[in-house]
Specification:
By secondary structure, the chain is of the alpha+beta class. It is built from 16 helices and seven strands. The strands form two sheets. A five-stranded antiparallel β-sheet has the order 4-6-7-3-5. The protein has a two-stranded antiparallel sheet with strand order 1-2. Strand 6 and strand 7 form a beta hairpin. The N terminus is likely disordered.
């Protein structure tokens, strides 16, 4: 989400060494209190006065200055927290591997089929059906309140974490501090996420050392980054806390995220096209009039619901390219992760789970 590309989801789904489908949310398990004067709640083992005199780098000191002046954090406690956070070199290596790469190939090789088949499998559909059945009432309530259908929420949580089975084992404080202070290419983004993470922990009364997620700091069933938590996460189970490791809060939060980014209730996501248009640029970011696409040799297989401007999506299905008209709701899905493959996988996985029920 927010430029954390599809590689993160793939790494979580395919390379995590263990499952952490929590019976008790770590936020619930480690919650202390949210009224610590000038700082965050810390469990006893993380209160280490011996770190007081450890020198910090200039960028860390500047970060502390900002947190003190802007948010009223206690300087010495924050110094101690950053001194205890670990630099994770392997996180930097993974971020380098998922950096965007350009491709000039114009020959189909089945890339979409391979991507799709990582998620839409009989075993995965069974797990998705179980999740949908277990939380059917909450999914319906999310649709009623936010207008986002269950299959989209189920698709997101399925692709991101396998419905809570793989939520990441990296300490978020370590991941975010590593990327904020040792990864110049995206240091500003991750510095902002570290800021939001510490505020989240303070507001929820949770020790920042007790929360784990992806190697980039995404967390919970829906893999929200801390900024998304602060903007869009909701207390959907109405227990007085916002907790994305709780599936009910995650369901409501995903729905709220989509509504905030312009989801249109009851509208289509994409429409398949007849024809080929090899000369046209494709992707969720493109904008074409229906007339221009028609002149290029494309026509929709079903109604476009009155839309006169669409994106042009191209899926590599092996022996040819498959073209789709991307509608506004498709673009909304890409606000979660900026990838046409990702958005199409979300939509098609959710529809496949729905059909399997």
């Amino acid at each position: 989400m927010q430029r954390i590309l599809l590689f993160i989801s793939m790494m979580l789904m395919l390379t995590s060494c263990s499952s952490n489908n929590y019976s008790t949310s770590p936020m619930q398990e480690h919650r202390g209190h949210s009224n610590v004067e000038g700082g965050v709640y810390l469990e006893q083992e993380h209160i280490q006065p011996e770190t007081d005199n450890i020198p910090l780098s200039t960028d860390k000191e500047q970060f502390i200055d900002k947190m003190v002046s802007k948010h009223g954090f206690e300087r010495q406690q924050l110094h101690n927290i950053l001194a205890q956070a670990n630099k994770l070199d392997w996180v930097i290596n993974l971020m380098d591997k998922q950096a965007p790469k350009s491709s000039t190939s114009n020959v189909p090789n089945g890339a979409w089929i391979r991507y799709r088949n990582k998620f839409i499998t009989p075993s995965n559909l069974s797990k998705g059906v179980d999740f949908w059945n277990q939380y059917e009432k909450e999914l319906q309530r999310a649709y009623n309140e936010y207008g986002v259908p269950p299959e989209i929420i189920v698709g997101i949580i399925g692709v991101e974490t396998g419905w809570g089975r793989v939520m990441g084992n990296t300490k978020i404080i370590d991941a975010l501090s590593t990327l904020a202070f040792y990864y110049p290419r995206r240091a500003q983004y991750f510095t902002n996420e570290l800021e939001d993470f510490l505020i989240m922990c303070r507001d929820e009364g949770v020790d920042p050392f007790d929360l784990s997620g992806s190697f980039a700091g995404a967390m919970g069933y829906g893999q929200f980054m801390p900024s998304a938590f602060r903007r869009h996460a909701v207390d959907f189970n109405q227990d007085g806390h916002v907790d994305l490791w709780d599936p009910i809060d995650a369901i409501g939060s995903v729905a709220n995220y989509f509504k905030a980014h312009g989801w249109q209730r009851g509208k289509k996501v994409a429409v398949m096209a007849h024809g080929q248009a090899l000369a046209l640029e494709t992707g969720f970011h493109t904008k074409y009039s229906i007339e221009k696409l028609a002149k290029a040799g494309l026509k929709p297989k079903s109604s476009l619901e009155g839309h006169n401007q669409v994106s042009l999506l191209r899926l590599d299905v092996g022996d040819r390219y498959q073209y789709w008209y991307g509608l506004p709701n498709f673009y909304v899905i890409t606000r979660y992760n900026h990838s046409s493959h990702y958005a199409m996988a979300i939509w098609q996985l959710g529809r496949a789970v729905k059909a399997a029920r």
